[in-house]
Design brief:
348 residues, alpha+beta, six-stranded antiparallel barrel, 9 helices, 20 strands
Length: 348
């Protein structure tokens, strides 16, 4: 964080803080020193996260066995919020503090529905701040924000200045959907652009979201504008107690097929099928096109997922109408509860 104060000075003097002339004319910026103090305090809550997954972890195929990213302390008892995919099927979890201490940690929760992960060090976090949870509801496009990356063995972590570009629903190719995601630009540049788990703060030093993805189009308007997608902490508040009690939210117990898909041009095309997944066992493959779920036509990932998840039991049979080559087929398959397919880290 050695360049933090220099960055904040630039932020305070740049148009990133002041915004457009019209915005500045109607909004009085907060006191410069108060904002600098708030942002400086926010960075003290950020830590590095190091994960080693189990050798036979399903997630190793796409995420690797060794993973690094960031987290942020959100409670005085050491509770750390990060992005969940970092800690999927973890065998070893470590937290790296800004004074170069590496502490063992345990998994507290992984929430499939939101993508959040919670962990807690096994030893006290001395000298690490606590980030207050904010709300992204009042954020407007163009608002200045600060993303922070945590330290690693060969990287002290740093800050990246960015702006809110848009807030909209997001459907991931990996059977993931949230109703509201934060899209920012420019993308996280610190720590080699490692956005995974990076906390996003507003000018008051309040936590707005957790870094999930790099995106090539932050606007969602099919034009190139590199940026990041952050999962807003607004999604955490209603489930935080449940996550600490059970290790996941109720919405995480839902059907999983094992598909990676896209939805360009009103067609849901399968790009990859996970090994030994329900989709592979049913004969689905890359290049197939999903036309309908239980006879209901679907043309977007959002519609596909919502129809798939709209059932009482996560393992209830589902009927897909698919285009395989030149043939339209009906394929009946039995989904799995995704939470049961993952090897559980100790503590969950």
């Amino acid at each position: 964080m050695s360049t933090l104060r220099h960055w904040l000075c630039l932020l305070l003097s740049s148009s990133l803080l002041l915004g457009t002339a019209a915005h500045a004319a109607t909004t009085q910026p907060p006191a410069a020193q108060a904002m600098m103090d708030a942002l400086t305090k926010a960075t003290t809550a950020v830590v590095g996260v190091k994960i080693t997954a189990m050798e036979d972890a399903r997630s190793a195929e796409t995420l690797g066995l060794k993973r690094v990213g960031s987290g942020v302390q959100i409670a005085p008892d050491g509770l750390i919020l990060t992005i969940g995919y970092l800690m999927l099927e973890a065998e070893q979890i470590e937290v790296v503090t800004q004074d170069n201490r590496t502490l063992p940690a345990r998994a507290v929760a992984y929430d499939l529905a939101t993508g959040f992960g919670l962990l807690r060090p096994l030893l006290p976090l001395r000298g690490v701040g606590v980030a207050p949870l904010g709300s992204s509801r009042d954020l407007q496009p163009g608002d200045p924000l600060m993303a922070v990356t945590g330290p690693q063995a060969d990287d002290d972590g740093d800050v990246s200045m960015t702006r809110l570009i848009s807030r909209r629903a997001f459907s991931g190719s990996w059977e993931y959907h949230i109703e509201s995601a934060l899209f920012t630009s420019p993308p996280v540049l610190a720590s080699g652009g490692n956005h995974s788990g990076a906390p996003l703060f507003n000018q008051k030093g309040e936590l707005m979201g957790i870094g999930s993805l790099f995106v090539s189009d932050a606007t969602g308007e099919n034009r190139r504008l590199p940026g990041n997608m952050f999962v807003p902490v607004d999604l955490l508040r209603p489930i935080l107690a449940e996550l600490q009690r059970t290790g996941y939210s109720g919405k995480s117990r839902r059907p999983w097929l094992g598909l990676t898909s896209n939805d360009q041009g009103g067609r849901i095309q399968i790009m990859r099928v996970s090994k030994d997944s329900p989709a592979e066992l049913a004969g689905l493959g890359a290049g197939d096109v999903v036309l309908a779920v239980d006879d209901a036509k679907v043309a977007t990932l959002e519609a596909f997922y919502k129809k798939l998840w709209d059932r009482a039991a996560p393992d209830a049979e589902i009927r897909l109408t698919v285009l395989q080559g030149a043939d339209i087929k009906t394929i009946v398959l039995k989904p799995q509860d995704r939470m049961l397919t993952l090897k559980k880290p100790p503590g969950i």
